[in-house]
Fold this protein.
Amino acid sequence: MHHRHRLLALGATASLAGTFLLAPVTIGSAAGAPNPNDPAKMAQAVRTAAVMDHLEQFQAIADAHDGNRGAGTSGYEASAEYVEQTLQAAGYETERQYFDFDYFEVVSSSLVADGTEFDQAVMSYSPSTPDGGVTAALVSPAVVTGCEVSDWDGIDATGKIAVIQRGTCAFSVKSTVAKEVGAAAAVIYNNADGALNGTLGGPGDYVPTTGITKADGAALLTHATATLDIQTVSEPKTTFNILAETAQGRDDNVVMLGAHLDGVHDGPGINDNGTGSAAILETAVQLAKANKLNNTVRFAWWGAEELGLLGSEHYVSQLDEAGLAQIATYLNFDMVGSPNHIIGVYDADESTYEASVDVPKGSAETEAVLTGWFDSQDQPWVDTPFSGRSDYAPFIAAGVPSSGLFTGGDGVKTEEQAVMFGGTAGVTYDQNYNTPADDIHNVNPVALGTMSDAIAAATILLAQDTSAINGKRSYGRSGVPARQQEIVIEGVVHTLR
Ligand SMILES: [Zn+2]
């Protein structure tokens, strides 16, 4: 991590040489420049139009790069360069943190039986069939879930397409067992309504494997043979996170904001998660104009979130105990412009939802910064589960306080939420979630503006004071508001403003 020159830190340490006390302490921005150093001003400085401009750029990048910005693609690289250039123009140094991951992409796939094509979703990390696919008899295990080799006792699966029911064990186990009994490929059908989008979890010794609905499973088994053609690319690749932080603020009390920059391979990824990426980018740009920051604010754009939170996991894994202890709180922003939105806050205090993970101390106070802002604006909000289903998971697993904002994904809007936020009850928050239609038209600018304001306000509040979260006060005395804090150098009291 690079650290840029710090005015306050320099003052505190270099003063013993004497020069500090002779020179006037100049902390502030150039005359006439905006100085968004309170929550309302900061929220105003982060304009929705500017956030939308960043989204337009992400859309243009996806358009120029095979329609996506997925990890390991040129669309990700171009997105990263845009973020870096925008940050550098605002005065930040940026850092790329590289890590290895298992790249996977479906090039093409089809499942056809007697001229009928079935909708299917290739499981992540499935190997390819031979060119032209596998044409073979369909066969089911004696025990329909096919989790053990013995489930296939008495059945000859050699060279055939195994048709297996979801449940009891992981998809990877079913595929491995199918291979062990000699099957050429596997089709796994759902045991509940809905499409089956599965993953084998990583590269392994599998047969080509795809998923279909429960109804299609029953329909497929009325046929004797089928042709399954799956062409995939699976290979080790390298990708990276982007990190940048403020020059101002103490090193040992870092407020961290993160959003995943990668999208799925199936679309431009504008709501998920161009929105979070753009909102923290514009917050960083405007924060660079603020002064009197007591705490360092560090921004992260995570890579390979869609493949399993890989970037944030790598980042946290590289922190030692001291590095972890420096992070006062981590705020996560993943989907903050959903078309049929809610204004959701991760329910760290478990006032609505019991969390499925351990909630670090200080998380409830982090949530309160966000909800407090909304309350101050008479903006309705709702809790969303503190589930760990995004890049805050590695942080909370390491005990770092956390919260975040969410406008909804594949959940369904309730009547009550439609009254609070408008939109349509009974419809998912984002009907285009993880599809090619998650484009620039798939964003509600009002929701995005509301969330961007909250991100901006929370950032400046926490940049000034995290004491409610971790008890750490900046240079001032206990109870003195951050903007009027004082520093004592060689017995002389300086007011930091
Ligand atoms: Zn996401």
About this structure: The chain has two domains: 35-92+246-485, 103-235. DSSP finds 15 helices and 16 strands in the chain. Residues 123 and 199 are 5 Å apart (CA to CA).
